[in-house]
User: Fold this.
Amino acid sequence: NAGVTQTPKFQVLKTGQSMTLQCAQDMNHEYMSWYRQDPGMGLRLIHYSVGAGITDQGEVPNGYNVSRSTTEDFPLRLLSAAPSQTSVYFCASSPPGRLARTDTQYFGPGTRLTVL
Amino acid sequence: RKEVEQDPGPFNVPEGATVAFNCTYSNSASQSFFWYRQDCRKEPKLLMSVYSSGNEDGRFTAQLNRASQYISLLIRDSKLSDSATYLCVVRNTGNQFYFGTGTSLTVIP
Assistant:
């Protein structure tokens, strides 16, 4: 199993450009999420999905869109990049957790995004 | 109020020392609790889950006090390889995970 994969690893954008960060998992996990990590802020939830066709907003959703057409993939779209979106983005997945309280999240290696 | 609060440190300790990290959470209905480890420029990885009865994994001991909404992590006999940031994580009933800002640990030879 590859686990959670993310592409690209690094990206530089100009203000106003759009792009999609890719995330895929091969563990058949229903729950997937996107976080951003900034110095001194910890990880903050952007969007999450509890299964194919279902998405919801997290703590900091503005400027980002997601979709979940398959169980495996959960792309994050930046609609019009801004310097405030310079960050490290992590995708994570986990089983639904209703049956096992100890189920936790597995993270991808991250995408380091710089917006100029 | 933040969902999860941690002392950011940094903690600089000599090899062999015992160090303790603390964390508090605000939602009394939170269901599950974890400690993650994050190395520089890497993704967070699960260190251990935290149970009400307390649990131990080698040199690491985690405790949960639901009444005080308090979680702790104790590292005994610190190794150089323990240097990292330790994240306190809480999962609520809606399956959302909340992360503390992390506590930085450097173990000094």
User: Anything to note?
Assistant: The radius of gyration of chain A is 14 Å.
